[in-house]
Each structure stands twice: as structure tokens, then as C-alpha cells.
Amino acid sequence: MEFLLVLLEAANFAAMGAGIGAGIAVVGAGIGIGQIGGSAMTAISRQPEALADIRSNMIVAAALVEGVAFFAIVICLLIVFQ
Length: 82
What we know:
Blueprint: H1 2-11, H2 13-46, H3 51-81
């Protein structure tokens, strides 16, 4: 049992998990911003007169997605360097 604990500490699974978590956060943010952009382009093509409103809402939504991604990356970095 003690040998298993030594192996787990030596492998440093927390750092690997944090790296994987940061990667998932970045990929998820990219997919989210892509969905936001695609939906905005569809909305603009259907209703061109609402361009300014759609664009401003798209920028706010993309900023919120980016903020969550940066927060996730910071948490992963805190796990690595703790």
C-alpha cells in the first residue's frame, strides 16, 4: 500500500491533470466562441438591420466565454505551482 502511494506521488498526477484541464478549457472556449460567431453571422444574414445590436451582444458573450476560460487556466496553473 505504501509503495502505491509513493508511485502516485512520484508520477505527480496533479500536474498532468492540471495540464489536461487547461487544454480542455482552451478547446471549450474555442468551440464556444466559434458557436457564438457562427450564430451571429446567421442572425445578421437573416436580419441585416440589427447588425449593431447583434455585434455588441456577440462581443459581450465572447468576452464572457474568454473570461471563464482564463479563470480555468489560472486555476490549473495554481494547481501545478502549489
